[in-house]
Amino acid sequence: MERNPRAHHPHRVVVLALAGLLPFELGIPHRIFGRAKDPSGRPLYEILTCGLAPGPVSTDADFAVHVEHGPQLLATADTVVVPASYELGAVHEHGVLTAELAAALAHVRPGTRLVSICTGGYVLAAAGYLDGRPATTHWASAEHFQRLFPAVKVDPGVLYTDDGDVLTSAGVAAGIDLCLHIVRRDHGAAVANEVARRTVVPPHREGGQAQFIERPVPEPQLASTTAARAWVLDRLHEPLRLSDLARQEAVSVRTFTRRFREESGVSPGEWITGQRVERARRLLERTELPMEQVAREAGFGTAQSLRKHVQAALGVSPTAYRRTFRASGKGMAPATLPAPDGPSDPAGSVP
């Protein structure tokens, strides 16, 4: 029987460096996979880099990266990683590969595992690798990505997706999360934890990228429910009834509900809950208020209700969110905000 000449070689990861790449993301596979060792200390992965041609590859910084290998190296890969680039041209604008990029990807063998970091997912999608599959990218690009590639099942809230032989990550540091996940999947938690420890990053981050997304309040003047929205934003900590909102617009509850949903795409109750989550986020980030007071100020009434709504919206608990986002004591407001009067979740309230 003929033996595989690479049977005892480490798993080969080939990183495709494209013009306009981000040096940080280019280095993630080398850092994470390169630290994975077996019990005897032997590398579990071999990491190599190629470009569309050997030679210098431009970056978004003030230096270029010199790449030794051309695209033929992709034919030897067990895993191909495509980091983000700011110069994807037709791939980003029209969702199609350039002739040069298509010729490079033609070297990839069937069955090769494909991985993207951040907007590197545009390359995989343009090549058709993501059709009908779950995928993610940086939250700021997710809407554009979905419009450009309607056959892809885009999830803008997660740090990464794993569909077996095709994996994608959200922006920048989420590439670390994805590469650690791959190491964990390939070789177990102990190896991945050791890599994380040496890299000084958590082996697994809580939640998804939903917690990083800014959700600005829509401009009130754009909607005909302006008065009601402004009235609500001043009273989020109070009980809010649909009849009170309708009264601000001098219409019936039925008319108000229909008009509100037409304008915002959600019910008044869903909108109010979203605004309360945003207020809770700000309080968790900027104050040291105890959770019960955060819950009252945000209009959730109890810490249990706060936990339920924040977890549902952001994918993490209020405690985990505060630990991640608040400054370490600097610039924190003292816990002196007055507590609102009365319960915030009585029978008959909107949410």
Question: What would you report as the Rg, rounded to the nearest angstrom?
Answer: 25 Å
- What ranges have pLDDT less than 50 throughout 5 or more consecutive residues? 1-7, 327-349
Order of strands in the sheet with most strands: 2-1-5-6-10-9
Strand content: 5-15%
| Rounded average pLDDT | 86
Percent helix: 25-40%
Classification by helices and strands:
alpha/beta
Major sheet size, sense and barrel closure: 6 strands, mixed
Number of strands: 10
Count the DSSP helices.
14
Shape: elongated
Element-by-element helix/strand order: EHEEEEHHEHEHEEEHHHHHHHHH
Distance between the termini: 69 Å
Question: If you had to describe this structure to a student in words, what would you say it looks like?
Answer:
This protein has 351 residues and is an alpha/beta fold. It has helices at 23-34, 90-94, 99-105, 121-126, 139-148, 174-187, 189-199, 226-233, 242-249, 253-264, 268-286, 291-298, 303-314, 318-325, and strands at residues 11-16, 45-50, 55-57, 65-67, 79-82, 113-116, 134-135, 153-154, 160-162, 166-169. The strands form three sheets. A six-stranded mixed β-sheet has the order 2-1-5-6-10-9. A two-stranded antiparallel ribbon has the order 3-4. Strand 7 (134-135), helix 5 and strand 8 (153-154) form a beta-alpha-beta unit. Helix 8 (226-233) crosses helix 9 (242-249), helix 11 packs antiparallel against helix 12 and helix 11 (268-286) crosses helix 14 (318-325). The longest helix has 19 residues, at 268-286. Mean pLDDT is 86; it is low at 1-7 and 327-349.
